[in-house]
Amino acid sequence: MNNAKLGDIVSFKTGKLNSNAAIADGEYPFFTCSQETYRTNTYSFDTECVLLGGNNAAGIYPLKFYSGKFDAYQRTYIIRTLDEEKLINRYLYYSLRPQLELMKSISTGAATKFLTLTILRDIEISLHSMPSQHKIASILSAYDDLIENNLKRIKLLEEMAQMIYREWFVNFRIPGHEKVKMVDSPLGKIPEGWEVRTVQDSFEITGGGTPSKKISEYWAQGSINWFVPSDLTAHKTVFMDESGNKITELGLKKSSARLFPEYSVMMTSRATLGIISINTTEACTNQGFITCIPSKKFPLYTLYYWLRENVEKFISLGTGATFKEITKGVFKKIELVIPQKKLVFAFEDTIEPIMSQILNIQRKNNNLRETRDLLLPKLISGELDVENIDVRGIEYE
């Protein structure tokens, strides 16, 4: 094994599109400097490669592997091996993963961090023998494939639950709906026995705050989950077990952050408005959230899927030139339909097994990621020798 500079072993290209080229439900992946992969209806590349965002405000550069047709933002690098008999692209992807912290530390710029070609060409990676490269890529990609398959399962389960919610509480095709009388309401026709209330009359909401970053006692060895919008936007999962940063009891006491119960529903209320997750522990947030506390009228999953169903409405009620924000005052006055209790209970009983599956699969994925991330640097550095490993015999589940 030896080291080689990227400039000697790979080619660099960049995309040509502006970031606004993204189209919802587009035919091809669209790679930008965001961790999220968007879609578009054009493609400029049809290849196997590594994609690396070239700028990011925090210096947290997205790194992805893809094979097929796609398009890319003008600051996204498309990186490929110059010689497939010396370096395979999949191994290149994994060998760059441990370099992301280095890239962050040596990138240029103040408000926005940039990775220049000069910086990238000088970065060194370890070059294993070709058999070892294939084995390392095979071991690590097995974890990634399992994670991807689990994400597809979660998506199907989410769609199933959302469809049931929509059928019952939006289209009013509840069990036995043929015999239900529809009556007038401020929100149009609703089933008889249902009622229209405001948010403030249906469930409790709370906001958040940020302890002073200048006082270490508010943060050092913190044990209280304190969520910021980027926690939710980075993961976009139904459930959140843990926040990126934690605060202390003193930090909670000395700030406007408010502790709320486990299995509440957090919604980002500014910038990227309308990202929604359920916290699985007692937690608090910064001021970029409206957190909704389930009630008897609006229990957990009814509340969660009502929020999901109405994101576009929340965005339309947001104000602000640069970033949209919906205030708690505006949110409290939103009217909603309260179904009969027996239907709410029936919905919760129907949805709970689906949501439990989602949480279990999410946690399996977290374990897979942790294991992969422990293995990766040891495999790339050669600390774990794969020379005599038969990858066909490895079990990953």
Structure overview:
With 397 residues, this protein is of the alpha+beta class. The protein contains eleven helices and 22 strands. The chain has helices at 6-9, 89-96, 100-106, 117-122, 130-169, 229-235, 249-253, 300-309, 311-317, 328-332, 341-381; strands at 2-5, 10-14, 28-31, 38-40, 45-53, 55-56, 63-72, 76-81, 113-114, 124-127, 182-183, 190-191, 195-198, 204-206, 224-227, 239-240, 245-247, 265-268, 276-279, 283-285, 289-293, 335-338. The chain has a six-stranded mixed beta sheet. Strands 14-21-18-19-16 form a five-stranded mixed beta sheet. A three-stranded mixed beta sheet has the order 17-15-20. Helix 5 (130-169) packs antiparallel against helix 11. The radius of gyration is 24 Å and the shape is globular. The two termini are 30 Å apart.
Give a brief description:
By secondary structure, the chain is α+β, with helices and mostly antiparallel strands.
Tell me the total number of β-strands: 22
CA distance, first residue to last residue: 30 Å
**SSE class:** alpha+beta
Query: In percent, how much strand structure appears in the residues?
Result: 15-25%
> What percent of residues adopt helix (DSSP H or I)?
25-40%
Q: Sheet bearing the most strands, described? A: 6 strands, mixed
Let me know the average pLDDT.
93
- Low-pLDDT segments: none
Number of helices: 11
Give the C-alpha Rg: 24 Å
Placed side by side, the strands forming the largest sheet appear as: 2-8-5-7-3-4
Q: How would you describe the shape?
A: globular
